[in-house]
Amino acid sequence: MSERQDLAKDIDQACRLIGEFELRSGQIAREYFDKYLFETQPALLHRVAQAMVPLLPEDADLLGGLELGGVPIVTVVSAITDRPALFVRKQAKTYGTCKLAEGGDVHGKTVVLIEDVITTGGAVRDAALALRGLGAAVEVAICAIDRSPIGVTPLADFGIELRSVLTRKDLDLAAAAER
């Protein structure tokens, strides 16, 4: 079994829930991948972060973890690569520093967004739009699990290349192999 297949099996076993779940997009799903079940397990979190490292573009100045699920992943990826991290809020704070992204200044920097699970890419679009408004270049997003339908590239129309550690197909194959 390859490292990717082994990771898919372990993530699937830890995170796949069966039931009825409303997604951020408003869609209803019969299956849900509870990413917090791998993000709170140090060994699985480290394996996911390690798998993201080769997906990083060389010109990345900052790694932007999206609130909330992208923050633990970006923290580990940042520690592995020694690249600075940002913690990107869903919206800027209305008090204190009033920042959208906690960490260094994004103006003129290339920011790679780090997300846990992407289905439609809505949170990545929102973050990219806001960061671009602050002068950042955002052209790549990396996710742990791409749950978008097979053949759909949810961020292409927004000029963002999506790179994923695992896809829905990887997880479905892992689940089928376990049956």
Automatic annotation (TrEMBL):
Q: Which pathway? A: Pyrimidine metabolism; UMP biosynthesis via de novo pathway; UMP from orotate: step 1/2
Identify the species of origin. Microlunatus aurantiacus
Identification of the protein by name? Orotate phosphoribosyltransferase
Share what the entry says about its subunit structure, partners included.
Answer: Homodimer.
Give every Phosphoribosyltransferase domain span. 61-144
Task: Alphabetically list the UniProt keywords.
Answer: Glycosyltransferase, Magnesium, Pyrimidine biosynthesis, Transferase
What's the family? Belongs to the purine/pyrimidine phosphoribosyltransferase family. PyrE subfamily.
Q: Which Gene3D superfamilies match?
A: 3.40.50.2020
According to the UniProt record, what class of enzyme is this? Answer: transferase
The UniProt annotation places 5-phospho-alpha-D-ribose 1-diphosphate binding at 24, 89-90, 93, 115-123
Q: Which cofactor does it need?
A: Mg(2+)
- Entry keyword annotation includes Flavoprotein: no
SUPFAM superfamilies from the entry?
A: PRTase-like (SSF53271)
Q: Which reaction does it catalyse?
A: orotidine 5'-phosphate + diphosphate = orotate + 5-phospho-alpha-D-ribose 1-diphosphate
Could you tell me which Pfam families the record lists for this protein?
A: Pribosyltran (PF00156)
- Superkingdom field: Bacteria
What positions does the entry give for orotate binding? 119, 147
One term of GO molecular function = glycosyltransferase activity
State its Enzyme Commission number(s): 2.4.2.10
Q: What's its job? A: Catalyzes the transfer of a ribosyl phosphate group from 5-phosphoribose 1-diphosphate to orotate, leading to the formation of orotidine monophosphate (OMP).
